[in-house]
Design a protein that fits this description.
The protein is α+β, with helices and mostly antiparallel strands and about 400 residues long. It has 12 helices and 15 strands. Strands 6, 7, 8, 9, 10, 11, 12 and 13 form an 8-stranded mixed sheet that branches. A 5-stranded mixed sheet has the order 2-1-5-4-3, covered by helices on one side. The chain has a two-stranded antiparallel sheet with strand order 14-15. The longest helix is centred in the middle third of the chain and has 20 residues.
Length: about 400
């Protein structure tokens, strides 16, 4: 959809942003909206800088406007879970990652962080590391034309774009660089960037991060990307196959290891985890939680394994799971699950990875993010408590 918003003068804005705050702190509360993929935010003033997330006050919002609550019972509570330096306001201002609860203190059905946190608590001794490769596609303001592409046409075929440079290959480097520096300022563990295989497509990596912090940081890095693109007057898409045809899709490859995998002899643990991921029923379970629209991407072409297949191999980018050559050579390390899509929820993906690879019980999502969010109406009204519970299959009663 084309944007007809009047272009604002950044110099005028910066004139006001340079004014002193006299000790006050602006805290931007960020949370996941009703689709399970959109992000929302609003700002409040604090009297001082918090030392930890638990110092921050809870807040609330109108869930009926985010597809997360009915109008007659619309209040959803925000609980701060992590905070970062604000690269947009700078100074003593912060971005706050929150998750969502009913007024009674119960996590709403679309709150995947709550369940992920419980899983991570159970495996804290395993010290699970996650390194997530977030691919994304930049679009012009019309959200139809990929950045750098001719209107209503196509650029030269794939080949020069991956890790490419030059005006005829690297479309959107300003955005990638601005986002990179903004994440570093914020305190996000961003570890690198590169141009991707399709023109206008890029990737950044977040990690390694331990446990629940991986999901917090990836979501906040997406928020920062959305804000950067807003300033440049363009759009970012997390769609796993934004352009049909002979063009690569966009994934969110998830690199995973435990303490045992990283120690001498850990290669055997890597193979064991890969075999568990391929056990009967497990590939289907994981694919169901690995993002929306992934069937358009996981076709067996463009460096993907077919959605219906499961395989793992050393240095094999056509497999479901790639084991780096260095892991085999050194007898320890990590592996890369190449199946998650670019719009995946890291709380869901990371918790499932841990549950399967570490052989623990826990909630396994059987619904899409949108269906999960819709169930919030039942949770709020109390009209069908069982309906909300159906969102999760509990493998044991301990979690």
């Amino acid at each position: 959809m084309a944007s007809y918003v009047t272009k604002m003068d950044e110099d005028v804005l910066n004139r006001f942003l340079s004014l002193p705050q006299f000790g006050k702190v602006q805290a931007e509360y960020v949370w996941i909206g009703g689709t399970g993929q959109d992000l929302r935010c609003k700002t409040r003033t604090l009297d001082k800088m918090p030392e930890k997330a638990s110092d921050l006050p809870e807040w609330n919002y109108d869930g009926s406007s985010t597809q997360q609550a009915p109008g007659q019972n619309s209040e959803v509570v925000l609980k701060p879970q992590a905070f970062y330096r604000d690269p947009f306001r700078a100074g003593d201002n912060i971005l706050v990652m929150c998750d969502c609860y009913t007024p009674e203190g119960k996590p709403i059905p679309s709150n995947t962080r709550f369940r992920c946190d419980k899983v991570m608590d159970k495996v804290a001794a395993e010290v699970p590391w996650f390194g997530i490769e977030q691919e994304y596609t930049l679009f012009e303001a019309d959200f139809r034309t990929p950045l750098g592409w001719p209107p209503n046409g196509f650029p030269q075929p794939q080949g020069p774009y991956y890790c490419g440079l030059g005006a005829n290959a690297a479309y959107g480097r300003h955005v990638a660089e601005a986002h990179y520096r903004a994440c570093l300022f914020a305190g996000i563990e961003i570890s690198g960037i590169n141009a991707e295989v399709m023109g206008g497509q890029w990737e950044y990596q977040v990690g390694p991060c331990v446990g629940i912090s991986s999901g917090d940081q990836l979501w906040m890095s997406r928020y920062i990307m959305l804000r950067v693109c807003e300033l440049f007057g363009i759009n970012v898409s997390w769609d796993p196959k934004p352009i049909e045809g002979d063009w690569n899709g966009a994934g969110c490859h998830t690199n995973f290891s435990t303490k045992a995998m990283r120690e001498d002899g850990g290669y055997a643990k890597i193979i064991e985890a890969c075999e568990r991921l391929g056990a009967p029923g497990k590939p289907e379970e994981h694919i169901a939680a690995y993002g929306e629209g992934n069937e358009r991407r996981l076709t067996g072409l463009h460096e993907t394994a077919a959605m219906t297949d499961y395989s793992f191999g050393v240095a094999d980018r056509g497999a479901s799971i790639r084991i780096p050559s260095v892991a085999k050579q050194e007898g320890k390390g990590y592996f890369e699950d190449r199946r998650p899509s670019s719009n995946m929820d890291p709380y869901r993906v990371n918790s499932m990875m841990v549950q399967t690879c570490c052989a623990i019980g826990g909630p396994v999502s059987k619904r899409s993010n949108q269906q999960s969010s819709d169930l919030t109406r039942l949770a709020h009204t109390g009209g069908s408590p069982a309906g909300a519970a159906e969102n999760w299959v509990w493998e044991n009663d301990e979690l």
